């Protein structure tokens, strides 16, 4: 124990170092073997031999290697690095002026970020380049702390962003997160959380663990996985920690979790077994592109334990035997067993994603050394300078170079763990992420079917609240993350035409929201029109009234010489009938779309014709009162209220109203308006009164006259007159006043076009009241009881009445 374990070595003119983890821990047990890293080491040897054989690159120079085991421990990795740097020597190579200054010119490794940080900090001051094939921590891009660090795998800076894009793409905004407690997990997850927050993704929980964590930590994670509402879990976990967690998952039978894996474990062969598939099946994760390395398979399968002491333990583990005959508990092996029949990560050449990175790293060093030794640009003696500048194309056509931070171009494949018919787990490439493309186009999905956790083909959902449909807006639940919200329907007159909108938009004044609340539509326009039933009925009644009045005029005209017509001033009767006709017709001005003219006309015409009408009735009442006094002996009162005075009074009463109306029109005439205040969903076209005072003056004047008329008629009701006219006038005024008194509350409370209808109704009702009460009894006598229509009958009645 305590290492560093010196594993593989071959002498050469120029030495390249390697630090990998052949053991997960310092404990030497079977579980901790990492055959992936054995494959990476074999690839490094293969690449070096290829370069040695090649006449194009480093001709005449032999490359050698020294490979150490880091044992998954930072301390061991740093000690291995120290050993690699030991024995600094000055020696001229091929007599050229460029010199090499150390035993090892460059180091390949490590697979873990933490160990790579250790290595990079150790060699930094000595200007020795470190090229990692699998250390993804974004922290390593910091060239101030790690000036000699390079890598052939993209930084987690990109991976974290790619994971956010992936989570966002499938609409999961409520995810769990688990990370390893080291630079890799902390750094990667910090970026993920930061970017996810910007994209509106909420993290339900964020748990940290490592393989050395206490049992309770694992139990807590298991419990969270089983009970939390988010079914998608992003795991920024190193491979070795994920292996520990997977064992716990298997023990506790935690299935149905959709894992989103970081590159460290999601594209690593050792985890993707049929057993683990029960808990990790359907895992999605980013992996760097797969590759084919021609010749590697043949090279690797020819390896024998006799090649190097490093292979002995490997061989014994694979074949479960002992090469040294000391251990009697296990069977002995010959060292000539064939690797071809072995099925593990070392002999799997279909997934060479990480391995290819190591291959590229060795070539990057070789090309740099080549450039250095050719003194291509005459710059400094250090390989480091040439590694920064290296730019070459591999045999498989990949362009390799490092950016200013020592990182390669970030391009990932999205892989999905699927169980093949043969019972093995394969990574199926279902999409890719290319950081060099413009934002928004970086994440692309192929049309392969993704198999999700639990062998499902339907995309799982992982949201705290379902997205708000159009017509509603989000209301964040108090004290909870932004992804948990209620959907509140938009109020009337407001819309939201996108899902998940934060608030509803108000429609413009003339618009209202439709039923779904996703569009503003023009409000309906409301006014009492000639085309609707109510309009037609009112027009019909108004024409009926006018027609009846005209008919009565005709009857009276035909019988103008009969006593009943002549009795109480036929001139007033005809004027009254004429004004009643106008009253009926003036109701027509209230129907139809209001225009400036109809607005002016409707109130003034109504006011004037009604005053004309009431003044005629008033005239008649006064005549009855006067006529009674006239019949009293010695009275000459009739000459004070003869036809001349009657005309004059009617004219002056009407003139007052005309004056009020003229003032109204000149100061502030009525005008049409679009009333949007009363209803949210309709626009009422109506006439604004202009001056309310004027309107109530007009009404009030009519009211005063009619009350005066009513009082006088009431006083005269018992008086004997020709044909009980005062009684009928009293009755008609009663109807008139009743109609208009009921009109006021109805007028105030009926909205929109009903206001107008109520007003027309009041006009028609009061006109009909006057018409029927005053004229129908007379017509009845004229037409059906002509025998009563004689002077004698009329006169004969009087004395009997007066008794
Ligand atoms: C490199 O090739 C030379 C002959 O071309 C050989 O002698 C030497 O052993 C080789 N070295 C390696 C590391 O393969
Ligand atoms: C290098 O050359 C030797 C001898 O020519 C050959 O046996 C070996 O397979 C070559 N190695 C590689 C990796 O090409
Ligand atoms: C690397 O070289 C290729 C051509 O060989 C060139 O197209 C590419 O731009 C170079 N890349 C860099 C970063 O210099
Ligand atoms: C949503 O409504 C707004 C404002 O009415 C409009 O500008 C926008 O184009 C609409 N969007 C959609 C998707 O209909």
Automatic annotation (TrEMBL):
It is found in: Cell membrane. Gene3D superfamilies: 3.40.50.2300, GPCR, family 3, nine cysteines domain. One of its GO terms (cellular component) is plasma membrane. It is a multi-pass membrane protein. GO terms for molecular function: G protein-coupled receptor activity. The chain crosses the membrane at residues 533-557, 572-592, 604-628, 648-667, 693-716, 728-748, 760-783. Residues 534-798 form the G-protein coupled receptors family 3 profile domain. Keywords: Cell membrane, G-protein coupled receptor, Glycoprotein, Membrane, Receptor, Signal, Transducer, Transmembrane, Transmembrane helix. It comes from the Eukaryota. The keyword Transmembrane applies. The keyword Glycoprotein applies. Belongs to the G-protein coupled receptor 3 family. This is Extracellular calcium-sensing receptor-like. It comes from Erpetoichthys calabaricus. The gene is LOC114643400.
